Amino acid sequence: METVTTIGRRKTAIARIYLNEGKGNISINNKDFKEYFPLEHIRHTILKPLELISSIGIYDIRAILDGGGFTGQAKAIQLAIARALVKVNPENKHIFRVNGLLTRDPREVERKKPGKKKARKRFQYSKR
Asked: What span, in angstroms and rounded, lies between the C-alpha atoms of 56 and 50?
């Protein structure tokens, strides 16, 4: 099997994934997967596409992450892994689509407006 390359995005996080057959090694920015994401629930988020099709330990994944925070990066990797597994086997597409793993979350941070503290927060009104 040749290397499959895909991209995933969430908020300002961008993840590039290189997936090929192997022993299940996952490295993120040249660090071990468990070292980069110490929280268990975030690791579970990333492994969800692999768990759905029972392929943990079959593929080696190398990820390059840029921007965003932990949750945004985790969701970006999740999307990229799901897209890569669909490229490997198109029959997986329905499973991922039903579980919402192939839909890019379009929500972004709203910009700050002039004359306000934040995007929508106003200054306190004083009647007297």
From this structure: 5
